[in-house]
Fold:
Amino acid sequence: MVPLLRGAIPAALLLIAGCGGSSLTPANLAQAVPEVRAARHAALPAEILYVTDGAQTTRHPEIEVFDAEDKSGSRQPIYTIPPRDGGEWGYLMVDAKNDLYATNYFANATQLDVFPSGQTKPSIVCTLDATPSDATIAGDTLYVTTQAFTIEEFALPLHHGKNCPAPTRVLTDRTAKLHGRDFLGVTADPHGNLFDTWIDAGGQEPEYLDEFRGAAKTAHRYAALGESFSYSMISDSNGNLITDVSPDGVTDDVAVFPYGLRKPVLFDPISTGLYEAFAFGKNDTELFVLPDYPTPEVQVYAYDPKTAKVGKLLRSFANIWFYAGSIAVYSKV
Structure:
């Protein structure tokens, strides 16, 4: 396998030049480039993990891309995407084609960068109309929450332009807007239901999980999440929800809501810190979680989407950025 490092394209061009005794000239370079791109795409592993990394003190991390099935003790990224234009990478998402979507935060704006599979330069860069507090892709829709207590929906694929296209639909969680302090996570299940999380502005600042049922324009309470700060929430192919819950205000637990049930099954409590992010791999048979305690690392567990049961720890990825708050996983299977 040709490693997809930043110096891989020249190496791949030389490899093609050596085939059949031909050489690359300006005349035939245009024909060779598509072949190089195809080789780079084919060289990617079956399952890919995207995560941010860098020095603990940096505000400009890079995106590291790993073979998500790597079980060795000395994992190295397949390739990295450096910080761009002095921004800070935030939420990471992948679509069905393994195009990577990354929010790029600046002091006065937030951009959305889209990287074709295996590429380190974005093909689309556009400015969002609001700073996201979470973002996720489900099917062919990008969902973004904002501090105006709205969920913005964008049809995929996006098109290049200075500003991102206008959302195709905007929903407001009116209860959260009336009583909330922060509007956080968002996800959609395969049954057409949309979920969000928000923090109450009063008292002990409890967090709530609300649901827009089907095509409804009004959200209703689904569950209470204690005093957690659930920025991440995902749904599997059966509609089971996974987020985090702090039942006692001290520990933080992985919370699995089997489809249609409003009481979660709790898993693997940590006494300090939070579960920052979740993702599925291998047709939802692997659950990726990112706790920030005692040090941030991505843990991969066996998972059964039919029973919504979390199984044994399969592997983990350590030495990631201290402030990493998002992961994305792409799987061909």
User: Anything to note?
Assistant: The helical segments are 8-17, 29-43, 174-179. Confidence is low (pLDDT under 50) at residues 1-39. The two ends are 19 Å apart (CA to CA).
